[in-house]
Request: fold
Amino acid sequence: MKDHMQGVYLTGHGGPEKLEFRTDIPVPSPGPGQVLVRVKAAGINNTDINTRVGWYSSEVTGGTDAVDQEVEAGGWGGALHFPRIQGADLCGVVETLGAGVSSFKVGSRVTCPVNLPRVRPGAPMGFIVIGSEIDGAFAQYCVVDADDLYDVTASPLTDVEVAAIPCAFGTAEGLLTRAGVTAGQEVLITGASGGVGLAAVELAALRGARVTALTSAAKAKAVHGQGAAVTLDRNASLPKDQFDVVIDVVGGSGWGDLILALKSGGHYAMAGAIAGPMVQADLRDIYLRDITIHGCTYQSPEIFGRLVALMNAGRIKPLVSKTYPLQDIAKAQEEFQSKSLPGKLVLIPE
Reply:
């Protein structure tokens, strides 16, 4: 095995100029209980870009595409250590086992959640994020704790398709689980053509819910194809008192209308704010109508375990619109931010 690898260093918070493609990054060595994974494919997500630009900092009040200020602590857990190898979506094969690892074989195909649980006293929902607190999949190799890996050798999905699942489908399944989505419910999903939104459409339909999806006319066919019963233009006026659940990854100025679209006793679950994190609300619309609001980031191991079972059974299939070589990461992220393509974009290390 080579001593050095190709990969992308994030050298600081900022624009794509902070992404540095290198061919001389030392290949990491797995410690006890760890696994060296040879990366086959790595999905692109909002969280990678949010971390790069520092959007998670409380200093930032605009949308994810409007960060024009310097921040010091812009990662999930605060300040990052640079350089950092990002990449939250991993599909790879086991290359080397660290001491004490017997749960995998060399050559097994593996993936892992984006949010890796690290429960500790006083933090029952503690976690770290691959590609943020630890190096991730935007390289030819990465090291992951064996306890965080899942075997997907049996899945009929391609490497590219597996790499499109962890962040988008993990987030979506977490949202649906927290909101308690069940068969027969009316569910409204925002940002429905993006990675998380489209995954939520597919998974909600799989649960037997009737999905209404907010998207653009150009992407409506793709969203219907993943299971939406109805699509509405994302700028359309929403009906009031119609939905049991709202799944939101957009936020922004239309937030109050999403609350009013819920039936009394409805559930609103959110895990993103691409249109902006600052919203206005009439609290009476919430408490007088017994609306429950769920902020969804932590994902229990059971959530990703269910996704792995679905992957291995071939019961879910993400929409991947385009792949790129790893060295074209800046171009890929630019196209991702243009929102011109539905579903997922995936990087391939060479």
